[in-house]
Amino acid sequence: MRQPIVIANWKMNGSAEANRLWVESFLNLKADLHCRTAVCAPFVYLSQMVELLKGTDVGVGAETVSVADKGAFTGEISASMLKDIGVTYCIVGHSERRTIWHESDENVAEQAEKLVAQGIAPVVCVGETLEEREAGKTEEVVLRQLRAVLARVPAAQFAAVAYEPVWAIGTGKTATPETAQEVHAAIRAALTEADAAAAQTLPILYGGSVKPANARELFLQPDIDGGLIGGAALKAEDFHSVCAAIDAD
Ligand code: PEP
């Protein structure tokens, strides 16, 4: 019913040569996978990645996008520019963007809206900080972030929702499968309220220190439909092992 997907988030990593080698290795390995895959890369490498992955079923995504369409916004990249070079996915609302660049729920929703207007599918990240979890606010925060996007973009237009507890990103601390499942179920319920049909098919991904050793138990949970993978996506072999933790139906 749901097609699982595992998405690499390279963040600010890579080089022209390293990317070429990564793609070569991953394409050699991926024949045995039972999930869709995509790679989100820094802006400057997106054209290269589109070219390297042309004719394959591996998607290419950006890591953020401007809320502006064009004009005097030095350093920004618009959704139409991403479309122009063949990008099909884009992460929005990653916690590093929310924290370091102070992106608000409203900014994130606007980004998603700009992307969808260009036919690019947003990967909508949500997640609570450690303080918010300890204050019992996980569901409140995650659903507030999600509903802000749903107010502007129908769930059917999302590529995925990615639940990424901020305390688990890049820290080596992973949510237990049960803890993650609880939040994923709440996300599924909120999506169902918005659009019951879309909620059944939309993948909800877990992100936060997923690696080959813990991917399988996470992906076995009923509402975890794949992952958004940071550190473990930097080596093609590790990313492949994480993807291989998704079983055939
Ligand atoms: C991320 O930043 O999206 C992420 C999940 O990172 P990591 O896998 O390194 O925790």
Question: Can you put this structure into words, describing what you see?
Answer:
The chain is built from eleven helices and eight strands. It is an alpha/beta fold and 249 residues long. Helix 10 (212-219) links the parallel strand 7 (204-207) and strand 8 (226-229). Helix 1 runs parallel beside helix 11 (236-243), helix 5 runs parallel beside helix 7 and helix 10 runs parallel beside helix 11 (236-243). The mean pLDDT is 97. It binds phosphoenolpyruvate (PEP). The site of phosphoenolpyruvate has 13 residues, from strand 8. Residues 9, 164, 169-170, 207-210, 228-232 line the site of phosphoenolpyruvate.
Summarize the model shown.
With 249 residues, the protein is α/β, with parallel strands linked by helices. It has helices spanning 16-29, 46-52, 79-84, 95-100, 105-117, 130-134, 138-150, 177-194, 196-201, 212-219, 236-243, and strands spanning 5-9, 36-40, 58-62, 89-92, 121-126, 160-163, 204-207, 226-229.
Question: Can you give keywords for this protein?
Answer:
249 residues; globular; alpha/beta; binds phosphoenolpyruvate; 11 helices; 42% helix; 8-stranded parallel β-barrel
Bound molecules: phosphoenolpyruvate
Order of helices and strands: EHEHEHEHHEHHEHHEHEH
N- to C-terminal distance: 9 Å
Structural class: alpha/beta
- How much is the average pLDDT? 97
Number of strands: 8
Taken as a percent bin, the fraction of beta residues is: 5-15%
What spatial form do the alpha-carbon principal axes imply?
globular
CA gyration radius, whole angstroms: 17 Å
Strand numbers in spatial order across the main sheet: 1-2-3-4-5-6-7-8
Main sheet properties: 8 strands, parallel, barrel
User: Regions with pLDDT < 50 over 5+ consecutive residues?
Assistant: none
The number of distinct helices, counting runs of at least 4 residues, comes to 11
Q: How helix-rich are the residues, as a percent range? A: 40-55%
